[in-house]
Amino acid sequence: MIGSLLAAAQNADAPVLVAQNVAFGIISVLMIYSAIRVVTAANVVHAAAFLVVVLAGVAALFILLGAEFVAITQVLVYIGAIVVLFLFGIMLTRAPMEGSEKMSRDNWALAALTGFVLLVLLGYTLWDGFGKNKIPADLQPTSTGALSDVIFGQYLVPFEVVSLLLLAALVGAIVIARRD
Amino acid sequence: MSASLFGIELSYWQVTSLRSLGILAAVLLPAGTFVYLFLFKMVSFMQSRLGPMEAGPFGSMQLLAEVGKFLQKEDIVPERADAKLFKLAPYLVVSTVLLVYLAVPFGPEMTFVSNFDGGIFYVLAVSSISALGVLLAGWSSANKYSLIGGLRAAGQLIAYELPMVLAVIGVVIQAGTLNMQGIVMAQASGSIFGFDGFGNPFFLTQIIAFVIFMIAVQAELGQTPFDMPIAESELVTGYITEYSGLRFLLFFIGEFASAGAFAAVAATLFLGGWAVPAAWADLDSAIFNLLGPLIMLTKMLILGGLIFFIRFTFPRFREDQLQKLAWTVLIPISLANILVTTILKVAF
Fold it and tell me: Does B49 reside within a domain?
C-alpha cells in the first residue's frame, strides 16, 4: 500500500487520494486477518462471525469505489441473509460451545492448493484486464437508476434467466426437503 | 469541505460532530418518549392504573431513574458463556438502529447523508443485521432458553423481512425512486385523481402496503402479538435472559429505539415524512429545517402509538401461527399489491 502511495506521489499529474488509500489499507488488513481466522478459528460460530467481518469489508470496498447499490446489496444478501442462515443452520443442528471438535479435514492441503490456484487465476485475470488503469480521481457514485436501466434494458434476458434459475433451485430445495 | 448552518460557516469536523450529536438525539429522544408515553403512561391508562408518579411531575423523570438503576447493576457474564460474542451482541443490535437513521430525512437539508440514492434499500439492508446480533446473543449465553429465543427471533426476523421489503416495493413503484427525500417529495407534491389539496400521502393509495408494513414492523420489533422469541411464560426472556446491567439496558434501548426508527421509516414512506403537502407551504424554505423534525416526531408518535396500542391489546401468536401468517398470507398479498400497483402505474 505504501508502495502504491509513493508511486502515485511520483506521478505528478495524478492526485493522490490519501484518505481513500488509508481506508483501503485498514479495510484490507482487517479483511485478510479475518479471512485467515475464518479457516483457523476453533469454533464454527466464531468462524461465521469472522466471515461477517470479511463480507462487511467487501461492502466497504464497494463504497470506496462509489458503488453504493452493490455495497447495500452485499450487506442485505450476504450479512443479512446468508450468514444469518449459516448461523441458523449451525445452531439448529449442533452448536458446540467449546471448540473441542476437530474442525480441519484431512484434505486441508488440497483445499489450500485449490484456493491458491483460484487466487492466482483471479489475480491474473484482474491484472490482464485492468493492468495499469487508474480509477479516475473525480469518481462519482454509480447512480442506482442508471444501474437498473442497464439491468432491465441491455441485460434483461440474462437477468430473467438468472431469476428463473434461482426459482428452479428454490423449487428443487423444497422438493428435496419434503419427504411426503 | 464545509457547510453553513443558519449563515455560520462550519468546517468538516464541526459538521461531523454535529451530525454525531444529531443521530444520538434522533435515536434517544424518540426512544425515551416512546418508553415514557406508551410503556409507562398509555398502558397504565389502559389498565386503569397511574403508572410511575414519584420521580418528577407525573413520573416524567422515571426513565432517568431506570437508567441509573441499570448502570449501577453488576454486569454479569455467565461462566460457560462465550464472553467475547456475549459482550459484542448488544452493541451490534444497537448500532443497526443508529445506521437506520442515517438515511431518514428530517427536513430539506436535515439529512445525515445527503442525496442518498439507495435510501430505503439501505434501511432494509441494515435493519436485517440485527438478526445477527440476536442470534449471537442467544447462542453465546450458553443457556437453552436463550438459544431457543434467539432461533425464534431470527426465524421471525427472516420471515417478516420479506413482506416488509415487498410492501416497500409498492411505495417505490408509486414514487418512482428509492431515495427517501424523493419519496417525501413525491407525496408532498403528488395528487390523487388531479386533486392536490393534501398531496398524495401513500397510506391512502398504498393502504394494503401500509397495513402489511406495519404488521411486519410489529413482528420485526418482536412486540406482542409477535413476542414469541421472548415469551416470558415459556422462555424466561428469550435471548436476553442472561443479560444484566448495561448490556440489558442496551437491548432495552435497542428495542425502543428501533421502534422509533421503524416509526420514522414508516412515517417517511406512508405519511409524507417531514413535509406537509406542497399546496400548504413552500417546502424549500429554511424554516422547514426546524419544523421538519417536529412534524416528523408528531408522525412518529402517531405510528408509535399504533404499535404500542396493538402491543397492549392483543394476545400472543403461537410460533407456527406466526410463521404461517408471514408465508401464506402476507407475502402473497404483498406480491398481488406489487402487481396491481404496477398495472395502475402504467395505466395512469
Answer: no
Residue partners of B192: CB distance under 8 A and separation at least 6: B200, B204, B205
Interface of B with A (CB under 8 A): 80, 82, 85, 116-118, 121-122, 124-126, 128-129, 131-132, 135-136, 138-140, 142, 147, 150-151, 154-155, 157-158, 161, 177-178
Tens digit of each residue's pLDDT (9 = 90 or more) over B292-345: 888 888 888 899 888 888 888 888 888 788 888 888 898 999 999 999 988 888
Write out the three cell numbers for B59.
Answer: 413520573
**Chain A nearest-CA residue for B178:** A144
CA angle, residues A157, A159, A161, in degrees to nearest 5: 70
> Do B85 and A143 make contact, defined as CB atoms within 8 angstroms?
no
Helices (H) and strands (E) in chain A, counts: 8, 0
All residues at 6 or more sequence positions from B285 whose CB lies less than 8 Å from its CB, including other chains: none
* CA separation for the pair A156, B311 (Å, rounded): 44
Query: What CATH code would you report for A2-98+106-139?
Result: 1.20.120.1200
Q: Is A98 left (phi over 0), alpha (psi -120 to 50) or beta?
A: beta
Q: Please give the C-alpha separations between residue B148 and each of A115, A167, B134, B316, in angstroms, as whole numbers.
A: 36, 31, 11, 17
Phi, psi dihedrals of residue A13, rounded to the nearest 5° = -80, -10
What residue numbers bound the domain in which B214 lies?
A: 77-347
Residue spans of the domains in chain A: they are 2-98+106-139, 143-180
Cβ distance B147 to A91 less than 8 Å, yes or no, reads yes
Q: What percent of chain B has pLDDT over 90?
A: 5
Which residue of chain B is at minimal alpha-carbon distance from A74?
B125
Q: Tell whether A73 lies on the interface with B, counting CB pairs under 8 A.
A: yes
**B117, amino acid identity:** D
Chain-chain contact of A144 with B178 (C-beta, under 8 angstroms): yes
How far from each other are the two terminal CA atoms of chain B, in whole angstroms? 44
Q: Identify the sign of the CA torsion B260, B262, B265, B271.
A: negative
